[in-house]
Design goal:
Largest sheet: none
Radius of gyration: 36 Å
Oligomer: single chain
Strand content: under 5%
Mean pLDDT: 82
Distance between the termini: 50 Å
Length: 213
């Protein structure tokens, strides 16, 4: 090919010299090398980004699994148990839907059956309090719902008030903020909503992972 280039250079004014041909060849080789390097960089970057996304998804699945198994799963079961006990305590009461333990502490403490149920409610609520305090770092989105704060206040008030009732003492309702008087209905709802949302997100991430494989 070099001879052909030389022939062209000697027989016509429009040819290129051997030196020019060499330079052009070197430029073509350099461009090809740059293109290959650029392509390799692009491919590696995509692979790296994909690996990072996969790792992020894996870590997210692990965190959600902890949230469900260590906090929201147990909370869901315990709140259901607490509700079942509260419904049992209301059985046979006048206007059961409007009946509240905090309004009937003395009567409940004086009745052996009701007293036993109330003590079970307080025991379950104590386990709920412990879960919230011990696993606070697993609360969804890292934001403590207002209903969780209300629940903790309600439980502490109930425990103090029922203890006083069993001892035959009265507890002035003014010692605790009014917002803590009754069980916060929003607490159950927040637990169910978080459990459902986290379960759905985990399932979606796992499905995406299995599809890519």
């Amino acid at each position: 090919m070099l001879l052909a280039a030389q022939g062209v250079a000697t027989h016509g004014s429009h040819g290129i010299s051997a030196a020019q041909a060499a330079i052009i060849g070197a430029l073509i080789a350099a461009i090809a090398a740059l293109a290959t390097t650029g392509l390799n960089f692009f491919v590696q970057k995509r692979l790296t980004n994909r690996a990072e996304r996969n790792e992020a998804a894996r870590l997210r699945v692990e965190h959600i699994t902890q949230q469900l198994s260590l906090l929201y799963g147990p909370l869901l079961l315990l709140t259901a148990q607490s509700k079942a006990l509260a419904d049992k305590l209301r059985e046979g009461k006048k206007n059961p839907e409007q009946w509240h333990l905090l309004d009937n502490l003395a009567a409940v403490a004086a009745d052996p059956t009701d007293r036993a149920i109330a003590e079970q409610i307080i025991e379950v609520n104590e386990r709920i309090e412990a879960l919230i305090l011990e696993q606070a770092g697993l609360i969804r989105d890292g934001d403590v719902p207002e209903s969780f704060v209300s629940y903790l206040g309600h439980y502490r008030f109930l425990r103090i008030a029922f203890g006083a009732a069993k001892a035959g003492k009265g507890v002035p309702r003014s010692i605790t903020a009014k917002q803590f008087e009754y069980f916060p209905a929003a607490f159950d709802g927040d637990v169910k909503t978080a459990f459902a949302a986290l379960t759905t997100e985990r399932k979606t991430l796992l499905n995406r992972s299995s599809t890519k494989q």
